[in-house]
Amino acid sequence: MNQSHSLKRHLLVSVLIVAGFAALPLVMTQRYLLGEVILFFLWAMVAMNWNLLMGHAGVFSLAQMLFFATGAYSVAMGTSYLGVSIWAALPLAAVVSAILAFFIGLACLRLTGAYVALLTYAIVGMVHVLIITETECFTMVRNSCQQMFGGAAGFSQFEDFGFRKLLRGNWILGNYYVALLAFAVTILGIVVIIHGRLGLAFRAIRDNVGYASSRGIDRRKYQIAAFAISAFLTGLAGAIYAGHFRAAGPSLFDFSTLLFVLSMVVVGGVGSTWGPIIGAGTMMLIIEFSKGMGDARDLILGVALIVFVVVMPKGLAGSVRQFRQMLGRKASKNEEGSTV
Q: Which of 10, 173, 289, 315 has the highest count of CB atoms within 10 angstroms of its CB?
């Protein structure tokens, strides 16, 4: 199958997925379930972009939740301090996340593999500590001191998308379609990148840096591009998260959140096209069934991650692909046997 045909096929699947979710509120009207689907959109966006960076570009970064938090904090601070409309803050938050990723990408240029993971996780930890230990008063909000980056309490009750006033009881539908639009932009953009020339360059660097360099592919340029693209769309997800929940706080940096999103990529299948979406849906179902278990939820996530790494190292998407190939081989053998 040539590259152009593969791109068209995956774009068609993307359009069908988006169309299906667009029609979902016609049959699913419960506010709680629509809220869970909104969360699915956001976590799937993070997982898809993490998979682009790690699975296709071969950059083992652990800074993805930092980009997500940057988008959320940018919306919170922009609307709270600067009076920026949330609709203007959304693209600005994505740009701020991309700029941050550009500098982190520069810092990682001389590193590979586990060293990139260690450096990026150290940066995330440093930012987290700086935020939660911040004590200096920046301004007064509702007769209480507000730190510049929100401190341990974070930000809350800032401007949302405005659908509570516009749609009143059906405000969740407005938020749903905003999140769906961002999800659609992400899924279409990721498919175009993965199955286009940029994706080929990413995979060439991932598989053999020396060979890629001999073919004129600049590792530094494409590594920074991978950081910036994934951070832009991840920051957009974080911005929508902040607008939906009207909150942004240091809990976004928690290791359990990092493990949750990473498990989506691993369970779905690292380096696949649809794995992150499949993994996001699977892990959200696991979380839904494990609600009320307290700290045991993290244990369940860890166990699920270990099981998939050992039993299905290529994830659900890879296992489905292997099963289809096996059926294809059996069909071809049967055809050969029937002609003999």
A: 315
